[in-house]
Each structure stands twice: as structure tokens, then as C-alpha cells.
TrEMBL record:
PROSITE patterns: RADICAL_SAM (PS51918). It comes from the Bacteria. Residues 200-430 form the Radical SAM core domain. Residues 587-614 are annotated as: Disordered. PANTHER family: ANAEROBIC MAGNESIUM-PROTOPORPHYRIN IX MONOMETHYL ESTER CYCLASE-RELATED, BLL1977 PROTEIN. Keywords: Iron, Iron-sulfur, Metal-binding, Methyltransferase, S-adenosyl-L-methionine, Transferase. It comes from Bradyrhizobium septentrionale. Pfam families: Radical_SAM. Its cofactor is [4Fe-4S] cluster. InterPro entries: BchE-like, Elp3/MiaA/NifB-like_rSAM, Methyltransferase_Class_B, rSAM, rSAM_horseshoe, rSAM_sf. The lineage of its organism: Bacteria, Pseudomonadati, Pseudomonadota, Alphaproteobacteria, Hyphomicrobiales. This is Radical SAM protein. The keyword Cell cycle does not apply. The keyword NAD does not apply.
Length: 614
């Protein structure tokens, strides 16, 4: 009887797919090990697993849940179709966290399943942003409707089970719009992926969002229009639950994906709990967070970040011209604070990664080259990431251009912040695209990479970890023509994965060309690895390495900073300094130095051996 009961149970097939997108040759971007974990996939998997545990379809229905991140896993569409057929089509494919550049690929994946009569739903920033900022039909949303793909806008906590129930009952609705109802995050199912999925990312890093929402108004940002500007957050208990779930399967590294963790109202209770897990329970946490340029003004924030296990921070620096920042409504970024903020992170020995946007109205190839040189000389940034200013659907910039009828790139696949998607007042499209690619080579010169390694040795930043990132950031755009965050180890391609509409290559020629390209690329990488290892070893073991000092590491001072090119080369910079002085005169005796956080680049520190590559 027990055997008959088990055999009679139906099994709901839930396939969660995070699509990749196409490269310039039309092939899906996929790696043996991808760079960045998908928090959207982890979040929905956690919610789906909770639905399965609670048996939301009744006691006689079990769930088979599979998570596929296409950046590191090939989607076996024929195999999945056979799987659905063996279960009578009972289940659905959910396209998770789809961004604008992934939308064309997501539709191509959906087409095969819809042709076989399988239910498909799509969610993520593209559909949510378009429904939030546009008219509900713009930017190819009708393509979903024509195929019968259900659109899910908003966040899935507390809502996924109703979609699953509709699929099971054969009544999947064309639209689930929850954009006006942002759910709370306390006590809801937490993001989680089994280890077999996490191991397909570099460093086996998991991810979770400790909070959502950002109070700022940056016009190029989609997050504020999808996740809102009000801070919502997980409790410290939930964060601990996430850590322990993952530590039980041997995962200790996390990317905390909050767009701005420094504005999470519960940052301190979260850090305090992580400190306890690290210092008392012995869990060797390694964390990466995203913060703004004013985080150094929050008492104890940086010190607790270090104790909690933060090893890397991403900072939305965006630009060093205040006029550009003001036009993008990035008014919270004060260039007079940049050096203080960066030196404060150096004081903690934490690796800094800064985002830098190219294509603001005042930019030209010449000013971009000048600004990169200023950053190299005067700002103690470890890694600089370049992006093209892109009117992403869901942003205020896109909404303004759309309302004005301004021409924008028609192919959503190009909205990956590395392709030019609209006109610029001072640069042609080609000039803008060329300076984007050139920027990577301008910043990551052999000379400057040696400087970055010397700064790391002097400030306690793990030099081996930095060397690993320097390899990725200095070669990915040049060799693979994709942004390093979309990169990985060993590019994988298949002739069947070319974008529809482009000709299929002869398989023999395809594999021959792919093999030759792979051999050439890895020859270049081998040389680059050897060179960085030599530099790292020599610098780490050089006597007096801890005493290295240059202009960027020099403590902020009245006499020095006011003469920096950072604060004098543009009218906006000079105006920013004048404004700072005016405010200081009204509020009390302050100066550009405020309080130096790094004393002579820790000149008393002795040289230390190289840290292992983590």
C-alpha cells in the first residue's frame, strides 16, 4: 500500500533558469566557472524549496526543483522536454532575474518550451522595470504575451505559491504585477542554493541580500524603481540562518548583494551577528559588500566590516567630475571625500573595487584619458571597473529618452553596460565604444599594476587576492570582449547555441576555430599569470615593502589635496572645493583633511610574505 501511494504521487517539475546573453558573434556567454553568483536564482530557489516543504499543492504532490545558471551550465532543452513529457507536462519553466540584456536569450529559451505546451513565466529587472516606468507594453513585453509567457513583476516572497498553484490548475495568468506591493524581508524564506550549483562559480561563493532599497535618486539606476527607495532588511537571525545553512555544506564566502549595504538600517546588527559567527563560532567568513562613497562617515562601519569578514568592497565612484555626477543625480558623491573614504578602507586592509561610468555629457576621449591618469596617480583604488552610461529600461534615463522619442539601440542584447546604446553630445558612437575598450588598457598597464601591488603590500590588502583580480580585469575585455563581471574560467561554446537569425557554422570549422582561439587565449593568460606571480613575489618579499608611499597613499592634508589634479582640473571640481570651504566656514574649523585615517601608509609596517590566493 505504501508503495502504491508513493507511485501515485504526482511530481511537479519546477525548472528555474537564469539566462545568459549573446556575445558579439551571437553565441551564448558561458563558462566552466563563472565569475558572479546569481542572487535572484538563490532567492527564488529558497522560496520554491519552502513551497515544496509546505506541500502547497497538497500532500499527494512532490516537487522536483532544478536551478540552472546559464553562465556556467548548458541548458539541455531536449532533455528537459523529455522530462516534462514523462510527467505529463506537469510543471513550468521559470526564467529568473532576467535583465534587459538577457531578455532576448530568455525569449529564445521560452520559445522551445512554449512550442511543446509547457508553461513558462518570466521575472526580473527588465519586466519589472518596464512595468514600473513605462506603459506596460514598451520594450518588447508584447513578445511574452504573444508566446503565452506569463510576466511576473516584483518580488516573489509570499507570491510564488499562487503562481505554482495556477500552473498546476492550468490557469496561469498572463500578468502578475506586484510592483506596488513590496514585501517585508523579515522571516521569509532565505536565499539558498545547494553546493553543487555554488561550486560552478569562481571561489565557490554564495550570495544573499541582507536588505533591499536605496534612498538615492541616481538617474541611471533601475534598482530604486524596482526594489524601491525605502530600506527593507532581513533580521540578524535570518542572516545567521543563511550562513549556517551554507556552512553546513562547506560554503563560507558570500557576496552580500544589497545595492548599498551602508544604507541598510540594520547594518550594525547584521555585522554584529556575523562578527559573533566568525569570532566565537569559528566560521571563517569571507564577504564582499557594495557601499556608497559616504560610508566612512558612519561610526564603526568600516571597523565592524573588517571584523565581520569583509575582504572586498564595491564602491559606486562613477566619475570624478562633479558636473557629471550632478547631471546623473548622484549628488551624494563628493569628490572632496573620495580620498578620505578610500584611505579609510586601506586602513582596514580591505580590497576596494570602484565602478566608473564612461559617457557622461561632459566626457570626451581626451577627458576620459586625463581622468584615468588622475585616478591612477591620486586615488588609492585597487580595481577600477568601467561601464558605458546605458539607458537601462527601468531607469529614469531610459524613461526620459523614451518619452522624448530619442533614438536608442533596438537590440536589448546590447544593454549590458559595455555597448553604446544611445547618442552622445561630444562623441560619435564609435569613439565612445573605442574609448571604453581602451580604458581597460589605460588603467591596467604593467606599470600601474606593479604600483597597485606595492600599495597592497604597504596597506595590508591581500596581495595574492589582488593579483588574481588584476589578471581577470586586465585581460577579460581584451581577450573575450565581455566585461570581467561577465567573465569566468574557460569559455564554453556550442554551435547549437548561436542566436536565431544568424547562420549556423559548419561544426568542423566551428570546433577548429574554437580550439585555436582557446589555445591562443590561454597562451596569453599563461604569460600574464607568470608575470603577475613574479611581480607579486618580488614585491611581497622586498625589504621595506611595508614602507611604500606614493601620492595616492599620502594622508589627506590641507597643503596637499588642494593642489591635486582631482580637485583642480575641472570647473566642477574647483566649485566643489569652494563649496566645501564655504560650508566649513559656516559650521566650524574644518578642512579637506578632516581626520587622516591612514598614517603615512602605515610606514612602520614591515614587509610581509605574500598572502595566498583566496
Amino acid at each position: 500500500m505504501l508503495h502504491s501511494d508513493i507511485a501515485a504521487r504526482r511530481r511537479f517539475q519546477l525548472i528555474l533558469v537564469k539566462p545568459s546573453h549573446y556575445d558579439d558573434d551571437g553565441y551564448v556567454i558561458r563558462w566552466w566557472r563563472a565569475m558572479t553568483p546569481s542572487n535572484s536564482l538563490a532567492a527564488v530557489y529558497g522560496i520554491a524549496a519552502d513551497c515544496a516543504e509546505r506541500r502547497v499543492l497538497g500532500p499527494d504532490v512532490d516537487f522536483d526543483i532544478e536551478a540552472i545558471d546559464e553562465t556556467n551550465t548548458r541548458i539541455d532543452i531536449p532533455g528537459l522536454l523529455r522530462r516534462f513529457r514523462s510527467h505529463g507536462g506537469f510543471g513550468c519553466v521559470a526564467l529568473i532575474g532576467v535583465q534587459s540584456n538577457q531578455y532576448p536569450r530568455a525569449l529564445d529559451i521560452a520559445r522551445s518550451f512554449r512550442a511543446a505546451g509547457i508553461a513558462v513565466a518570466i521575472g526580473g529587472f527588465h519586466v519589472s522595470g518596464c512595468l514600473s516606468m513605462l506603459d506596460g507594453r514598451a520594450v518588447e513585453l508584447d513578445a511574452c504575451r504573444e508566446m503565452g509567457v506569463a510576466i511576473f513583476a516584483g518580488e516573489a516572497e509570499g507570491r510564488l505559491e499562487s503562481v505554482i498553484a495556477d500552473v498546476a490548475a492550468g490557469r496561469l495568468a498572463p500578468l502578475y504585477n506586484h510592483m506596488k506591493e513590496l514585501p517585508g524581508m523579515d522571516g521569509v524564506p532565505v536565499p539558498f542554493l545547494p553546493k553543487r550549483y555554488i561550486e560552478r562559480t569562481l571561489g565557490s561563493s554564495a550570495s544573499f541580500d541582507a536588505g533591499r532599497g536605496c534612498p538615492y535618486q541616481c538617474s541611471f539606476c533601475t534598482i530604486i524603481n524596482v526594489q524601491g527607495r525605502k530600506s527593507r532588511y532581513r533580521s540578524a537571525d535570518d542572516v545567521e540562518h543563511i550562513v549556517r545553512l551554507n556552512w553546513a555544506q562547506g560554503i563560507r564566502k558570500f557576496f552580500i548583494t544589497d545595492d548599498n549595504f551602508a544604507r541598510n538600517k540594520e547594518w550594525e546588527s547584521t555585522f554584529d551577528r556575523l562578527i559573533q559567527l566568525r569570532e566565537k563560532d569559528g566560521i571563517p567568513l569571507g564577504l564582499m559588500i557594495q557601499v556608497d562613497t559616504l560610508c566612512h562617515k558612519i561610526p564603526n562601519f568600516m571597523e565592524k566590516a573588517k571584523r565581520a569578514g569583509v575582504t572586498k568592497v564595491f564602491i559606486g565612484l562613477e566619475n570624478i567630475n562633479p558636473d557629471n555626477l550632478a547631471l546623473a543625480k548622484k549628488r551624494q558623491n563628493k569628490i572632496t571625500e573620495y580620498r578620505k573614504m578610500l584611505l579609510a578602507w586601506k586602513e582596514q586592509g580591505i580590497l576596494t573595487i570602484a565602478g566608473y561610468i564612461l559617457g557622461f555629457p561632459a566626457d570626451t576621449p581626451e577627458t576620459i584619458k586625463r581622468d584615468i591618469a588622475i585616478i591612477q596617480e591620486e586615488l588609492p583604488i585597487d580595481l577600477l571597473e568601467f561601464f558605458c552610461l546605458t539607458p537601462l529600461p527601468g531607469s529614469e534615463d531610459h524613461q526620459t529618452l523614451w518619452k522624448n522619442g530619442t533614438a536608442m539601440e533596438a537590440d536589448l542584447n546590447s544593454y549590458d553596460v559595455e555597448h553604446v546604446c544611445t547618442a552622445h553630445p561630444k562623441m560619435s558612437k564609435q569613439e565612445w565604444q573605442d574609448i571604453y575598450h581602451e580604458a581597460w588598457q589605460l588603467y591596467y598597464t604593467p606599470k600601474h599594476m606593479k604600483v597597485l601591488l606595492r600599495r597592497a603590500a604597504a596597506t595590508g590588502v591581500p596581495i595574492g587576492n589582488l593579483a588574481k583580480y588584476l589578471l581577470t580585469f586586465s585581460t577579460t575585455d581584451r581577450l573575450e570582449k565581455v566585461h570581467p563581471l561577465q567573465g569566468g574560467i574557460f569559455r564554453l561554446k556550442h554551435p547549437s547555441e548561436r542566436r536565431p537569425g544568424l547562420p549556423r557554422e559548419n561544426p568542423w570549422l566551428f570546433w577548429l576555430r574554437f580550439g585555436c582561439e582557446t589555445l591562443v587565449k590561454h597562451s596569453v593568460l599563461t604569460v600574464a599569470i607568470g608575470r603577475l606571480l613574479i611581480w607579486k613575489t618580488v614585491i611581497a618579499y622586498t625589504p621595506g615593502a611595508g614602507n611604500y608611499l606614493d601620492r595616492a597613499l599620502t594622508p589627506v592634508s590641507d597643503d596637499g589635496d588642494e593642489t591635486l589634479d582631482l580637485l583642480t582640473k575641472t570647473a566642477g571640481a574647483r566649485a566643489a572645493v569652494a563649496h566645501f570651504k564655504k560650508i566649513a566656514g559656516l559650521t566650524g574649523p574644518k578642512s579637506l583633511d578632516a581626520r587622516p585615517r591612514v598614517s603615512a601608509a602605515r610606514s612602520s609596517r614591515r614587509a610581509r610574505p605574500a598572502a595566498p590566493i583566496a
